[in-house]
Amino acid sequence: MEGVHVSDADFNRVQYQLLRAVEQFIVRGERYANTKGDLIVSANEEDHRFSNREGEVVALPLGYDGPIAVGDTLLVHHNVFKYYNDMKGRRQSGRSFLKDDLFLVDFDQFYMWRSLTSGWHPHDRYCFVQPVPPEESIIFKPLTEEPLVGIMRFPNDYLLSQGIESGDMVTFKPDSDDVRDSPALDVAVAIYNAGAHVRVHDPKGLPNAERVYPHMDYRSNLDDAATGSDLLILGTEWREYRDLDPASLIDKVRNAVIIDGRNVLDPHLWRSAGWTYRALGRPTA
């Protein structure tokens, strides 16, 4: 038998992936869903819009006793299958790649699963809402979908326990303490990871946020959070922030600069009070 040379890096990767496979699903799937008939609609391997999202389960995590079975389908994150290019432009597989057309999927990498007998089911905390057309109004709405409103199609177990069923009309409730998938918290963490000292304030969500990211600096008092700061970022639409008097904070900050990440503040009011105001999609002056 001829000898086979395997580099230390390849051996370590395979060994690491095999160890991970004990605790994760193994699925089989194509890397891309970028064709319509015989037509290739995208040749960009880094375009997540055409990454395959469905994988057939071929092996379960060791000791798993949940409802998912071999042969079921997982609806996965777009990074599971797709290639990416490293800093030198070399094509690489992501951390989920195992071998050939087999990939590892962790419990936080899929959103739904489809049973061979009972159809689609939401995974864990996820639920799925179908957008609806904009409601008729005397105010012109340059939208194709009604914001913050939709029809529940796949409620999770918690929502079912609260009486919410498939087909119900649902809406997002602002001013709540739910921080799951919070873009504002993600921004704060990203800035913190870049080396900045970040203080986080929220009227209701601090306890939940602290459970998710306990290393952050949380302040229950807004004045305390703003004191000595070089930049304020508004990431949520709390009425407490929308009604804030800009003059009440300007003597507490080191640099009077604010980024309105929700476009809910009055630019003229803040600039008149001496602030440098910035917001996405709004003029700088």
Structure report:
With 285 residues, the protein is of the alpha+beta class. Helix content is 18%, strand content 24%. The protein is built from seven helices and 19 strands. The strands form six sheets. It has a seven-stranded antiparallel sheet with strand order 8-9-1-4-5-10-11, covered by helices on one side. Strand 2 and strand 3 form a beta hairpin. It is globular. The N terminus is likely disordered.
Key traits:
three-stranded antiparallel beta sheet; 18% helix; alpha+beta; disordered N terminus; 19 strands; 7 helices
Sequence-ordered SSE layout with sheet pairings:
Blueprint: H1 8-21, E1 25-28, E2 35-36, E3 39-40, E4 54-59, E5 73-76, E6 83-85, E7 91-93, E8 97-99, E9 102-105, E10 110-115, E11 119-122, E12 128-131, E13 149-154, H2 157-161, E14 169-171, H3 183-193, E15 199-200, H4 206-212, E16 217-218, H5 222-226, E17 232-234, H6 239-242, E18 257-260, H7 267-272, E19 276-279
Parallel strand pairs: 15-16, 17-18, 18-19
Antiparallel strand pairs: 1-4, 1-9, 2-3, 4-5, 5-10, 6-7, 8-9, 10-11, 12-13, 13-14
Question: What is the compact description of this entry?
Answer:
18% of the residues lie in helices and 24% in strands. It is an alpha+beta fold and 285 residues long. The chain is globular and about 60 Å long.
Number of strands: 19
Q: For the residues shown, what is the average pLDDT?
A: 85
Rounded to the nearest angstrom, the radius of gyration is 24 Å
Helix content: 10-25%
Name the beta content range.
15-25%
Task: Give me the side-by-side strand order of the main sheet.
Answer: 8-9-1-4-5-10-11
Helix run count: 7
Structural class: alpha+beta
* Quaternary organisation: single chain
**N-to-C CA distance:** 75 Å
So what's the overall shape? globular
Largest sheet composition: 7 strands, antiparallel
